[in-house]
């Protein structure tokens, strides 16, 4: 039984290729997506592998009370083939999309989201025991948006009447509310919880506070499906250094500035030690060890690591 619960925020600082492993469309190497929403996601198994790998590098000097490799084994489980197999003490759920960057005519880009993504993020945070005081937001119809920053909008005539509109990519959305107070509160809360502290992230915390935009579920789903980063690659013949005939393929990446959220659960260690014994750790100590090493750190997740893909910064926010 998992006794401690927390939220793991993953903020992409480079393109992320968490591959789906199969393709039926024009993209040869698509990213993982949820079946029912089509939103990009990270499988919990991939997150666990990335955190374990990061822990192996980052744990030195931070957890001096026991050997690093021993601690990794009790937290994440032994390596395959180990004679003393047992379950790890931490579990990671799948990460779901909260905000997605979309190119904007003004402000460079916006952090787009939708009522559905916000409701799912709120449900997850409350499920782990986090207090969430987000106000209700107005319904958003297709072609409309809610914004908190009026400087993102342009003014033009629609049917002879002046209107404030938001331009994202090649599309135009009518601002239903151009200084929405509910969005401001949600944006400030997300920025405080999800973006790491420190001067290097000040710009992004401030931008998320002002440039969060709520689209309809349908319009947000379109961008989440079609506004990812797709790169062409050409296979090169090793003997001639020229392009291989038929060697063109396309790889999809989640764009930088995307924000995802995942649950983290912890139990007491499962290696057979009992309460009162020297090596025993309860769930609170397990979560503390994980948070001490991982919180606020840069991790690599997914494929194409040698080309700089998969860099995400983490925030762990513990619940009750």
Describe, in plain words, how this protein is organized in 3D.
The chain has 320 residues and is an alpha+beta fold. The protein is 26% helix and 29% strand. The chain has 7 helices and 15 strands. The strands form 2 sheets. Strands 1, 2, 3, 4, 5, 6, 7, 8, 9, 10, 13, 14 and 15 form a 13-stranded mixed sheet that branches. Strands 11-12 form a two-stranded antiparallel ribbon. A hairpin with a 2-residue loop joins strand 7 and strand 8 (161-168). Helix 1 (44-58) runs antiparallel to helix 2 (68-76) and helix 4 (181-194) runs antiparallel to helix 5 (202-210). It is globular, with a radius of gyration of 22 Å.
Features:
7 helices, 13-stranded mixed beta sheet, two-stranded antiparallel ribbon, 320 residues, 29% strand, alpha+beta, 15 strands
